[in-house]
Amino acid sequence: MAKPPNAPVRLRVHGSIAREIGLAIVSGRLRPGHVLAGEIEASEKRQVSRTAYREAIRILCAKGLIQSRPRTGTRVSQISDWHLLDPDVLEWLFTGDPKAEVIHGVFELRTIVEPAAAALAAARRSQAHLTAMRRALDAMTLHTLNKPEGREADKAFHAALLAATANPFVISLTNGVTAAVNALTEFKQRLAKITRDPVPDHVRVYDAIAARDADAARDAMIKLIRLAVLDMPAKQRPRPPASTSMTEAAYFMSI
Question: Which CATH number is associated with domain 13-81?
Fold first, then answer.
């Protein structure tokens, strides 16, 4: 039987445990400072080996969600310690009904990073970068973002763009940025099928980078992100802070 769209990948035991605890943490069911049960108690309760539970805890420690210290036990970390751009943490944040500040924060991140990266890419790209971006665009056109192959191609496009900056610090953001792009797309699809074709927006970015026009590349990426905001159902779109007098339209122009 074919796997239904967006069906979760089957995880190994320690991965399933890490996901279960990770979801409880990012959803707020386990608050910062909460002390997790000891290894023996927790593994017996889940009817898994201590080795599997220990590996799950190691995974969560590596993602900054928990801290494990001798004598003080294993505690949920403060949010400031979470590795929010870790692909798993992002996926967990967007599971269910993500908080408005999560959606807003991801769009702000993209607005800060990607337009500047597009401008750099226009100045520094090689033919290999253009080839990778063009290949990704072709796959996006073929599969659309409604299919996993199309979403993988979307991630590949943004990864190639970041690689074209030739800046190792920007490139180090690739996993986080592409995971953020994918998390937003999959969340929108859970709410409603994406009807607007985003490929032309990406083509405008590509054309500007190919032409080595940094200003046009920056502007095209800003427009791409703004349109992605407007693709969100109205209730899930970022809202202007209550402390401002900005209209919704002006606010979208600013992010």
Answer: 1.10.10.10
